[in-house]
């Protein structure tokens, strides 16, 4: 069994430094952390785990997502679990319910299980209290990297918002409404709206104020009567596909047809959107691939001491049938 003393000798540092570097606690430079982890990996060191945390004594990683029921995050979790199982790691899952105040508590609960690393999807990585704690190797998933945590797997949500809006503009629409979950709960939604605004400005049309609703329990009884009467949009962009389905239902309750009266588009490319008739126009995201990439990156950093990096995967337009030429 490899000991901490052996790692200290191999890394050329003190035993206390090795302990701090492996636990992610106390003062230690990033360079020394990489040196210690590289030494540990080269010697084949595996940290001890309590029986309560892991009865089979397998290393585990912690994953935080906003919702385990959203197909987007379910796909990412599937990719993470597939890659981690292949590496002999268990996966611990927590959810924040799109609540920034819950993130720090959820991460603290994951840390009690002494994970070798974390994969986090946060409401807003720039303001999250969860990142103020001493953390093991951490990958941001869906969030842009921040200075303290430069390892991230994302898509370009701003560009996706701009491209889906351009697609709708090419169909002759000028009054396009953006409906979203609260931006405070999702920086991805905010970036998509900012991309929408950029495309509208480029085309010489004034962007409309976003209609923000709760991400949790805000879709089924969505009421669009006020904004439809006030703005009279001919098209609606929803910040995700589940919300786009809610928009379709709300428009039908107003006696409007999609796409004959109002065009609708979303983001994510979930399967149910392709099964509806007409199929949903959406910007498809590689959620499963992003999960696999985040897991692989975490293993590289935690076990092989590789440098942190930002990986941005491609999205693609699925034209669907819910966007048509404006009358």
Order of helices and strands: HHHEHEHEEEHEHEHEHEHEHEE
Q: What profile does the largest beta sheet have? A: 6 strands, parallel
Q: How many helices does DSSP assign? A: 11
Overall morphology = elongated
Fraction of residues in β-strands? 15-25%
* Backbone structural class: alpha/beta
CATH T-level fold name of the domain at 157-284? Rossmann fold
Distance between the termini: 73 Å
Rg result:
22 Å
Keywords:
327 residues, alpha/beta, 40% helix, elongated
Structural write-up:
It contains eleven helices and twelve strands. With 327 residues, the protein is of the alpha/beta class. Among the domains are: 45 residues, 434 Repressor (Amino-terminal Domain) (Orthogonal Bundle); 128 residues, Rossmann fold (3-Layer(aba) Sandwich), CATH 3.40.50.2300. The strands form two sheets. A six-stranded parallel β-sheet has the order 2-1-3-4-5-11, with helices on both faces. A six-stranded mixed β-sheet has the order 7-6-8-9-10-12, with helices on both faces. Helix 7 links the parallel strand 6 and strand 7. Helix 1 packs across helix 2, helix 2 packs across helix 3 and helix 6 crosses helix 7. The longest helix has 18 residues. The radius of gyration is 22 Å and the shape is elongated.
Chart the SSEs and their pairings.
Blueprint: H1 4-11, H2 15-23, H3 30-43, E1 60-65, H4 71-86, E2 90-95, H5 100-111, E3 117-120, E4 138-141, E5 152-155, H6 157-169, E6 176-181, H7 187-202, E7 211-213, H8 225-231, E8 235-238, H9 241-253, E9 263-268, H10 271-275, E10 281-284, H11 287-304, E11 310-313, E12 316-318
Parallel strand pairs: 1-2, 1-3, 3-4, 4-5, 5-11, 6-7, 6-8, 8-9, 9-10
Antiparallel strand pairs: 10-12
Helix pairs in contact: 1-2, 1-3, 2-3, 3-11, 4-11, 6-7
């Amino acid at each position: 069994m490899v000991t901490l003393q052996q790692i200290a000798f191999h890394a050329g540092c003190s035993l206390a430094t090795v302990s701090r570097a492996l636990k992610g606690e106390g003062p230690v430079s990033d360079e020394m952390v990489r040196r210690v982890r590289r030494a540990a990996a080269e010697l084949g060191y595996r940290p001890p785990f309590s029986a309560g945390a892991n009865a089979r004594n397998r290393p585990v990683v912690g994953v935080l997502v906003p919702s385990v029921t959203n197909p987007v995050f379910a796909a990412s979790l599937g990719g993470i679990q597939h890659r981690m199982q292949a590496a002999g790691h268990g996966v611990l899952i927590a959810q924040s319910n799109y609540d920034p105040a819950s993130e720090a508590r959820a991460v603290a609960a994951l840390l009690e299980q002494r994970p070798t690393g974390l994969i986090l999807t946060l409401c807003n990585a720039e303001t999250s209290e969860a990142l103020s704690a001493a953390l093991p190797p951490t990958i941001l998933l869906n969030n842009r990297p921040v200075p303290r945590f430069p390892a991230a797997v994302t898509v370009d949500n701003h560009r996706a918002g701009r491209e889906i809006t351009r697609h709708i503009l090419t169909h002759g629409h000028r009054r396009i409404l953006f409906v979203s979950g609260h931006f405070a709960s999702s920086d991805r939604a905010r970036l998509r709206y900012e991309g929408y605004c950029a495309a509208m400005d480029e085309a010489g049309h004034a962007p409309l104020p976003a209609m923000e609703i709760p991400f949790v329990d805000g879709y089924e009884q969505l009421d669009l009567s006020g904004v439809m009467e006030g703005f009279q949009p001919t098209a609606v962009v929803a910040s995700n596909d589940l919300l786009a389905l809610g928009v379709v239902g709300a428009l039908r309750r107003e006696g409007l047809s999609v796409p004959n009266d109002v065009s609708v588009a979303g983001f994510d490319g979930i399967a149910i959107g392709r099964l509806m008739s007409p199929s949903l126009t959406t910007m498809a995201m590689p959620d499963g691939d992003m999960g696999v990439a985040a897991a692989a990156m975490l293993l590289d950093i935690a076990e092989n001491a590789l440098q942190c990096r930002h990986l941005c995967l491609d999205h693609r337009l699925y034209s669907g049938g819910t966007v048509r030429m404006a009358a």
